[in-house]
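Handoff note, outgoing to incoming analyst
You'll be picking up this chain. Sequence as last confirmed:
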Amino acid sequence: MLGQITSIKSLCLLRLSAIGDVCHAVAMVQQIQKQYPDIQITWVIGKVEHMLLKDLPGVEFIVFNKAAGLQGYKELRNHMKGRKFDVLLHMQVALRASIASLCIPANIKVGFDKQRAKEGQWLFTNRQIEPQQGPHVLEGFMGFAKAIGVHTAPPTWLMPFGSDERDWVKQHEAFGKPYAVISAAASKAERNWHPQGYAQAADYLAEQGYQVVLCGGPTDLERNLAADISKHAQSELHNMVGKTNLKQLLAVLESAKLVIAPDTGPAHMAVTVNTPVIGLYAHSNPNRTGPYLYLDNVVSVYEQCLQEQFGKSSKQLPWGTRAKGELMDKITFAMVKEQVDKLLN
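Most recent structure output, in case you need it:
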């Protein structure tokens, strides 16, 4: 704990990626701002993540371009010339982030506790947050706020989007009736459910009177998966994959009745705007990485996969143990339908 710090005037936060994780971090930042309204916060962030958060009130952003290699570190060091922070919250265990932390001048550098400070993160910090037993990623982040004396509360979000994005949704034909969103693609293909399953879920939602909208980014993986879902569906789907920026996507998610998604950024974005999420999980523990406010609506075969691969439950294995392989086919439409009915009723 950092009890000896009685006044923090400047704070730097290092969290480069990913979309879901920076959404978790927003809740932490806004609780810090509530307790320290005059604090100066600088956030070193990734390029894509900055597109979502760039207008966050009271935060200065410095974009770190990891694709630039050594040049990215030189640019970060140039940004930091002549500056000194009271505290750095080093909230990413990747080695590239730890190297970036060397460019950030701070009296105190706070990292994860040793059990979670992977890839040698503890070598780059001089303080650690308190150990936690089985925390969700968001709760882990809240540990950083607690480490600087913040009295944390249940998370809330004020995301940086507004009337322009909401008006865009109102004017678009895809959103002319009550709708549900399927954001089908995670960053790794193995985490995606199969197109037939998504199509069955879409048809069922259509039978309940909802327009189904497919959302996602502009990658080939996401476009191809959306096309396959549309091909298998009997109902007409609105394919908006690659057709929204991240702030527009927030507005789309905000007005949706519900969202169906695997472990992917839009699932966590939906949580920030209080839209129910049915998360689909096989490889990772949803109690660690699931949609935080809607863990009761998760469809998970994670425990089953652990038993098959290790012969143990998650409680008998290190926290965060991942199951491996092609596992999402173990999720059935009946499991998803059960959660849909639960939310709609």
